[in-house]
Amino acid sequence: MTLLPSPVREGVEGALNQLGASTVVVDARAVAGGCINHGAKIDTADGRSYFVKWNASASPRMFEAEADGLRVLAEACPLRVPRPLMRGGGAGVPTWLVMEYIAPGRRSQDYETALGRGLAELHSTSRRSEFGWAFDNWIGALPQANPTTASWTEFWRDHRLVPQWAESRRRGYLDRTADQLFDRLTALIPTALEDVEDHSPSVIHGDLWSGNTFADESGAPVIIDPAIYAGHGEVDLAMAGLFGGFGPDFHRAYEEILPIAEAYSAYRKDLYQLYYLLVHVNLFGSGYAHATVEAASRVVGALS
User: Fold this and answer.
1) pTM for the structure as a whole
2) Which positions are catalytic?
3) pLDDT for 113-162, tens place per residue?
4) From CA 282, how far away is CA 231, in angstroms rounded?
5) 34 touches 14 (CB < 8 A)
6) What are the C-alpha distances in Å from 201 to residues 58, 75, 229?
7) Do the Cβ atoms of 24 and 14 come closer than 8 Å?
8) Rounded to whole angstroms, how far apart are CA atoms 115 and 111?
């Protein structure tokens, strides 16, 4: 069982023992654990299966934040979410997280309709008093600050776009001409988000793309790997549309419950996708720089 590092296996078996389950992991098979983590389906001697993910270089806080996000989504969202069960590691041992194993299946005919409807219900019912979250988390391998903030304009500008743009400049992926464009864009953000300021923030997934959804055994949608905070629901729509992962049934079902503002198509989709494009620049390099500048240019052009 070389797939599962011995310190991880020993920690998982000890935690399972505390839950009253079998202490012996008898099999481990590789399963995607996201872009930065290792993952495996593990089977125990009592016939149960779990999903475990681990990372030798991650802070234990990363999996703590993920477990929190999964618990919140499971309570607030009608879509299926795997239950986090236990976590451990640190002090020289890879950090790890064990959660419910959900076997993948084929998408049902109404998969995207159910996904769009479930996301809209999450955004319409999980209201919060302030933007942000109780603690910071991660977007991929990058830290994501979530200070509680009364203003959405302030939150999106100062805690989403500005830090990622500054990091892209520090790494040399964007030039001074791009800086001038960004200065124009940040001056326009209050106008772009003016109508959102009166809306109550809701829990959002924070990293909703096709790779963070799959169908369970019945064909129903499952959502995983959240980067949650209280924000504007259009952010999830923007990320969902960035790489073309969802079709018209998804968007139609969403809008039947929660109508989408005209400003979203006009400029806000680009403004929200800009954050994720900057994240991709900082994670994967200059290949995403052109798309980043183009998105910023479209926002400035639409509002100037």
Assistant:
1) 0.94
2) 207
3) 999 999 999 999 988 999 999 999 999 999 999 999 999 999 999 999 99
4) 22
5) no
6) 29, 17, 9
7) no
8) 6
